[in-house]
Amino acid sequence: MQADFRLSRTFTSARLFKENDSSYTRTLVVSDYGLRFPLIFVYRNRIQMSAEQKLSKVELLKAASHQLRGTLGEEIQNDKPEFSDDAATLLKHHGSYLQDDRDTRKAKGTDGKLLGKHYSCMVRTRIPGGRVTAAQFLAELDLCEKLANGTLRITSRQGFQLHGVLKGDLREAIRAINESKLTTLAACGDVNRNVMACPAPYKTKVYEQMQALSQELAEHFKPRTRAYYDLWLKDENGEEVDTTEFKPVEEPIYGVRYLPRKFKMGIALPEDNCVDLYTQDLGLMAIVEDGSIVGYNVLAGGGMGRTPSAEKTFPALAHRIAYAAADQVVAVSEAVVKVQRDFGNREDRKIARLKYLIADWGVPKFRAMVEQYYGKGLPDPHPAEVTGVDDHIGWHEQGDGKLFLGVNIENGRIKDEGTLQIKTGLRVLLRRFGMETRLTALQSVILCNIDPHDKAEINRIMAEHGMKNAEELSLLRRYAIACPAFPTCGLSITEAERALPGIIDDLDQEIARLGMQSDKIAVHMTGCPNGCARPYTPDIGLVGKAVGKYTMFLGGNPEGTRLGFIYKDMLPMEDIVPTLVPLLIAYKTDRKGPESFGDFCTRKGQEALEAYPA
Ligand code: SF4
């Protein structure tokens, strides 16, 4: 079976012994890959076998899936509107989530009976560094109209999402994305997902190195399974592939069970942490000397998700682990991923992210293990630290005589609504000028390589479609992001994307009244504690806790270097702005020097903040 294929390759030459047992053996028998599997611990040139650990259901499913195929091949063909649970779990690795319309879950027919779930799929495109051609962007816009709900979403990880794709149209959607030379493979699932990188298109060696590394890492960590091609694409002769035939390929990094949990990477500069390095499983902070990146600080173990019912879960900032020279950073990254592969928790998915392994081991042990996998010691991190963040919105010079324009897309949703015709406006711009684009981590888009002579015409087209330029937008709105939540996300507890614009409208008014428009205050909102819009690191984090109620976090910062603290729990949505106003007034009068709102909240602490009169 497939499990034996991989395990035999990996471990036949390994020296194994049981904990508390000094007898060595050269044989690892995996007679039954179904129920229990011995955990392997590699440490200081030896492999130790711990007490047996029960694998989670998802681990067993992945292992027995014929490299992420499972029953997807048959289920794509049937007439059902949904996938089975197991197929839906595997489907994530192919870049799609099965969802249902949360707005209509309780809808009843004329007979008073529930109509049942209205299923569709979210299709996520993985785009390293957020780099998209005009043709690719237009292809996704076409798809959102042809096969999805008429809108296209820019994600908080520089990808695209289509929502509302029916199961029967899924193959057509994935094929069309691949025809545009993009992919959905590994956009979700227990693998390395989209590699983020600063999207600013400055024509300097440093910015081009970051973009190039994002492409290299994405390629290096791409799953090697052929399942994606067999299931969704046609063969080289344009023929359908026989999905019943399974020819295993080696997965040199992932093995048969892939990673214990999702894995996220990002690359940025200390002076512009626009991809939130400290929230990544692996953050690579570029160190520059003489106009070139010479290496990276390796930050590991960041992650936002938490489960309120599970005390053992928590959001975490990444730890500064070591320094990797530029020509070694892929090898060091591979070592980090492999340590997580071999030691991450595979019994309990709630605590399977890398952050829990590091919390369990501590940084010194984790670093020692990474060095072990890498094959030699690593230098300590460079002293550089994050000093700033830029949303890249507005007009900027690229450095080659051309301009780029960052266009804010509220919560990443590209749509036409009333006088705001962003979807049509972008179409006009992309068709007319054919410029490359970059997607940002704040769910917006950068139009690149613009001839300065075209600036006035582009401004005119934007105004014609109700699209606002940087100077027409408050910093508050520019730095606000939300996850999709209702009506598409199966995990959402309450609203986020649909609620945040109204909250920002009200907060904007208060901030204007206080004359604080030039203060950079970041608000991130999510519909559940899973934290897809990174709500635990900005000045203000709003995390859905119950229907219409939120946990309010304060004390983070736009630079993403500090976790906020819980200021209020179960806060009704209508109380969010009234709760913040007295604190903003206090900040205006009591702040010290250039401290940010988050700095102020952290310095004061919850008790002192609560003492300010409402
Ligand atoms: Fe869904 Fe929660 Fe992620 Fe929002 S944070 S998209 S509600 S899982």
Write up what this structure looks like:
With about 625 residues, the protein is of the alpha+beta class. It has 4 domains: about 1-50, no CATH class; about 55-190 and about 225-260, no CATH class; about 395-475, Sulfite Reductase Hemoprotein, domain 2; about 475-610, Sulfite Reductase Hemoprotein, domain 1. About 30% of the residues lie in helices and about 20% in strands. The protein contains 17 helices and 28 strands. Helix 15 links the parallel strand 24 and strand 25 (about 525). Helix 15 packs parallel to helix 16. The radius of gyration is 24 Å and the shape is globular. The termini are far apart. Residues about 1-50 have low confidence and may be disordered. The structure holds iron/sulfur cluster. The site of iron/sulfur cluster has 13 residues, from loops.
Strand order of the largest sheet: 7-8-11-10-19
Domain module count:
4
> Which regions are unreliable across 5 or more consecutive residues at pLDDT < 50?
1-51
* Distinct ligands, ions and cofactors found in the model: iron/sulfur cluster
Main sheet summary: 5 strands, antiparallel
